[in-house]
Amino acid sequence: MDQKPNQTEVQLNLTTDKTLNIVFSPMDAQGNTVVYVPNQSTGTPVPASDAFAIKLENIGTEPIVLKKGIPVSDSLAPNSGYFLMAVLLPASIQSTEMGSVQAGSDWGIKSFTDDGNYLMLAPVADIQISVQNSISIQFAGFASDPHQIPQEMSLNLYNLDSSIIGDGNYTTNAVILQVPKPGNQDLNLIAQPEEGSSVVNITPTGASQANTNEINFYLTNDDPLASAIPSTPNVSYIRISFDTGNEIGDLTSVTDAANAIVSILRDYGSKFTLSVEKIQNIPTWKFTASTDIFLNGGSNDRIEFQLSNLISHLEEGIANVYLEFFNIPGFNDGYKTFSLQKVLPSAVISSLSLSPNRIIYGNQIIIAWQTQGASYCTLQCSSIGSIVDASGNTIQNYQQFPANETGLTVTPVLPQLPASTSPVSFSITLTAFTEDGRGGSPEERAVQIEPVSCSLSASISGPILSGTPVTLKWISNYAFSLEIDQGIGTVQANGSIQLIPVNTTTYTLTATGLYGPITSQVTVVVSQVKINSFTPSATSGVLGEKITLTWDVVFATIIDINGQKLTSDSGSIELPLTVSSNLFTLTCQGGEGPAIQSITIPATDAVQITNMNGYIQGGGVYINPVSAIFNWATANATSCTVTANGNIVSNATSGSTNAAAGTGDNPQTVTFVVTAEGPGGPISQSYAV
């Protein structure tokens, strides 16, 4: 910056509604009022020509009288009845530094701290400012630390008519500078943030967790070939500050600024000592040189700083960071500034994973994610399906999940798809949202759902004899469930089982999964048992006579005649005639069996019932009774009993009998039973009339 500000004036509130104009001096090239303080490195005091002064100009048409009084606090000033001027000093001037300030013999002056740090002035005698004339108040004794960043300074005038002073408020921007040393040069430095370090993520109101920022920036010579810049140990220093308050142009509030940390990184960290100095409770970070080198010079040499633990609850906007440097031998004081952009943080997905990445359709997957700046997340599946949670509930696109998740269990669900052998890529998209509902860039991950396949085989497909052991073997890929019918039930993905089929059986393996259910079948053919022939040696005989029975069968496992087990598939056996009608039954167990064939051979000398017949007799008139007439005959019978509906009606071995059979309009069935005793007997037969 310039070695010395231009010695011009700052005119304030020059408006038609005020006849008392205020002029501050001196002023720099940027229009800021300058308050000089003694040079810290040389001790040079502030010359009178550079002293801070306030000029009161009467630009009206009537004289202005400033009545004498004594300085009082601003709370008492409106009721004092005399002229008072309150000078509200820049915030960097501490209360302990105001006591030495003087304003000449014509003015009484006193410092107050009840409403900020301010000086109150009152004339020691009445002062009249004639029309188009002015008076000046020259101050001396300011001794605060320099502060090159413009700060607000204002005047409040009391007890003059509003036509003279309006509302009595006059404001200027002021800088506090050391008396420049003749011959010093401007120091051309560059201050700027590291790449990607110029954004401050603000914390929205009501957020459960604050966004903590870390800003890296540096100070360097604008000429990479410049030689080293010296410093005076314990005198040369850098002060870092930033706009602090509650306005949109502030970086953070006073409360949050108190938690911020500023440090020097790497080599220069050991060449400066840090002290935190508060200006009206606002922290600044003062780094004082501890060696005789400020910057080493050369290409890319720089002092690197880090502003950490920075939290801001303010609105979005731009705010400045200031780096002031003081007392550099041979150079004027100066400062550099750079801007930071305050923004609402975007929600960023830092990691997203699906596990496993290849699955059987119907199996679960685990989703895990990490985010930054997010308040919640949503999940959306690919357009060909949906996802359900561990309870079987469909996850909706708008359903909210935590900002971070270590393991969410879900199951992909697909619609019915045309049969195929190709896998399906099932994608899930995660979107992270800030607390105010702004979605960040979504991230997509996919799992591959493999198509189900299965195969069933038998160790022997046949034809086999019933009861022959058979081993079923199956393999499958990516089956969610496997089941074999015929009572076998659920099975593992691959395996075998031994069975003994009795009949020809088809076994079906059913597998569920992608494109399923699908099936695989195998049929085990069991040879069908068959009787080729079963013949007797005679078609009749006498009691006690043996009849030769001959058989020929195939594929039988068990053979018997009337319960008598036979040991070969073909052969003959003699069996006696023991009753009047002899029934011989060949039974063969085996595939599709049993196979059965019977032969009846009568014994001609045994008791026999040779004839039974009957009819209904009577009627005529429908109410007349009718009778059932029954005729029978036997051979070789020694005795006989005939019953009609259970009642004995005759004991003759042959003959005819009758029994009541209802009326003509309601005939009744009569059942006759003939029981004959004799050789090979008894025998019984029934006949219904």
UniProtKB/TrEMBL annotation:
Highest taxon in the source lineage: Bacteria
An example Gene Ontology molecular-function term: protein serine/threonine kinase activity
Keywords (A to Z) from UniProt: Kinase, Serine/threonine-protein kinase, Transferase
Name this protein carries in UniProt: Serine/threonine protein kinase
